[in-house]
Write the structure tokens for this entry.
Amino acid sequence: MVTAKARAVDGPDKSFREAEIERRELDKHDILIEIKFAGICHSDLHTAHGDWGEVNYPLVPGHEIAGIVTDVGENVSKYKVGDRVGVGCMVDSCGECENCKAGEEQYCLKGNVPTYAGVDKYGEPTQGGYSTHIVVVEDFVLGIPDSIPLDKAAPLLCAGITTFSPLNHWEAGPGKKVAVVGMGGLGHMAVKIAHAMGAEVTVLSQTLNKKEDGLAFGASSYYATSEDETFEKLAGTFDLIINTVSAKLDINAYLSLLTLNGTLVNVGAPAEPLEVNAFSLIPHRRSFAGSMIGGIRETQEMLDFCAEHDIAPSIEVISADEIDEAYKRVMDSDVKYRFVIDISTM
Ligand SMILES: [Zn+2]
Ligand SMILES: [Zn+2]
């Protein structure tokens, strides 16, 4: 057993405190990872604050994990001590259902095991990456290509795959017009990845505050959704819209921007229902869809794609003592574009 240093919260309104957690003894296929960096995802805030239902506290969030292998179980074949590796939003699944067999473990019919706030096959609560070590079965560990620094690799494990997967599934590429709604942690990755895939990318953001960044990340145009003429001008334009916003939007206005057969994919998860008018879909055979992270194989593809195209998230590295402040800034949308905790400061 390894005792890991961690940062935990004890309740919805509590601050982070120092904690120690036990990581399990290595089973035959387990890997012990010394965590170097952990990204702060908006989901961490929602879970820590209890927004998405009851949570067993104390809770150690973190599902954007990058580190180094320091020990392996006797039957591990995919990784060895010293390898640079990552862990994303899930650490296990049944492995037997048709979705798991298809490499879509995130949609496991028995439910995947989330990296934190879940329960593993031993009946123990899972605790995430705001900690010095984690033990994960090798099938849920990703290899991080040498050219991606570990601090920048961390956010790829959630923000990267959450945007890569729908862009890949709905075939963003040359000749396709893609709009990205929202320019936060997810949105900025969607812009970079869609551009690298060869699509023509437009950002739809509330204001033009981040326009320069958006264009630098690869967008060819950038519009403010606070201006009504944006919707008039862009009506019927896009083959694919990736909505990264987790607040309630007038989804019908966004659907009106799709071309014939166009698809709007929600990756943001607003707490309130979105009201869809059937007539926003019917006349142009449009689709309204959702997508959740990606499978393990696809996550590896995404990491390799980012290395090949020299793409990485734009990050701000913080110390373990700055997590509370970072959470406040995430809520105020005051981050460019992802906070990453330097775990060595724990
Ligand atoms: Zn996340
Ligand atoms: Zn399954």
In short: The first strand starts at residue 2 and ends at 8. The pocket of zinc ion (ligand 1) is lined by residues 41, 43, 63, 89, 158 (CB under 6 Å). The mean pLDDT is 97. The CA atoms of residues 6 and 131 lie 4 Å apart.
